[in-house]
Amino acid sequence: MINVNEVIETNEMIEKENLDVRTITLGISLLDCITSDLNKLCDNIYNKIYETAKDLVRTGDQISREYGIPIVNKRISITPIALVGGAACKEPSDFVKIAKTLDKVAKAVGVNFIGGYSALVSKGMTDADRLLIESIPEALASTDVVCSSVNVGSTKTGINMDAVRLMGTIVKKTAEATKEKDSLGCAKLVVFCNAPDDNPFMAGAFHGVTEADKIINVGVSGPGVVKTALEKVRGENFEVLCETIKKTAFKVTRVGQLVAQEASKRLGVPFGIIDLSLAPTPAIGDSVADILHEIGVEHAGAPGTTAALALLNDQVKKGGVMASSYVGGLSGAFIPVSEDQGMINAVEAGALTLEKLEAMTCVCSVGLDMIAVPGDTKDTTIAGIIADEMAIGMINQKTTAVRLIPVIGKGVGETVEFGGLLGYAPIMPVNQFSCDNFVNRGGRIPAPVHSFKN
């Protein structure tokens, strides 16, 4: 049982240290909407989502007022649309029509984002998968709150390099399609390896086919809380440091557990998981990079950074698991560049490069996230970066992801402003040597030997 006193003691965290419930995400299965009639399918999707989610925002606001806990976003995740639209969609524009339906219903119920314009192609692509992937640039250019993800690899199946090569092109086309908004469409597109079925965070959320008809997943975030706690043990040894992070993560997770249970009860929707992820924002004091600085590195990217991040990620998970029986999603530390002022400062100081970020993704909770690169970066180079990150996830049996933003018309030394939670980012240099012959081979990279555990 949750003791309200456990939550009351976090008031100072909320008021002074940027603790928040980052999102209540309502997962909705659309499998019962499937039909071969596209217009009927769109109607079914709209009606199912509207009826299921119409009270989500009001309920979240009500819980926030009653408990004094900021709930920043209310979101929806849905069954991957490549599965839902396969029978009705014969060309990419048919999928775009579904995307517009999703955008319309999301706005009607008042959520911030809807995720699940997705395809799962870690071993191969169906015709529907390919059509959806080809539709992504237009879909993200013609909608405002739709988020897209494509899972191209897993520890069990290997890496679908045909899909990786295609996604290099799709990321570049999405950048071109939204160039009037500084290629913002790419901020709503994630390429995954080992994507979880229950992730409440955008842009990668979708409602997996292993889930119930509807589910409540809650994402909690508190980088500022962890940093403040570590300030009080500055100079202490690693044992004290680890204990402090675990205890803080425990308290933060309990806040999310309370919100999740209340939302579940009031909406009549089963509770799924708590995702305890230190997800930064552009706000001063709400930075994962600042935690790494407090642990002892001058800037994110300095020697010792990967070890510090590994320690942080592990202790966050340990504290979260003790606080809730259902910790899932991505749970750990996010290291986006544009959404974290400390990371931006590290890039501008010359301490943090794309290659060091890749090394850090071996031990963070996701991967290369919200990284702006020159707009003239080749699509094969983007595919090569995706392949590298997918390999890290496949070999290490962890979720990895890539959210690169090639900002059309801008180059190294310039910055791009996205606004809101997405913040701003310096354009980072990319290795100019070619990987064309590698990514153009086609086929599949096999699963590693340690995947065979049956």
From TrEMBL:
Quaternary structure annotation from Swiss-Prot or TrEMBL: Homodimer.
Gene3D superfamilies: 3.20.70.20
Protein name: UPF0210 protein SAMN04487928_11218
Similarity section: Belongs to the UPF0210 family.
InterPro entries hit by this protein: UPF0210 (IPR007841)
Organism of origin: Butyrivibrio proteoclasticus
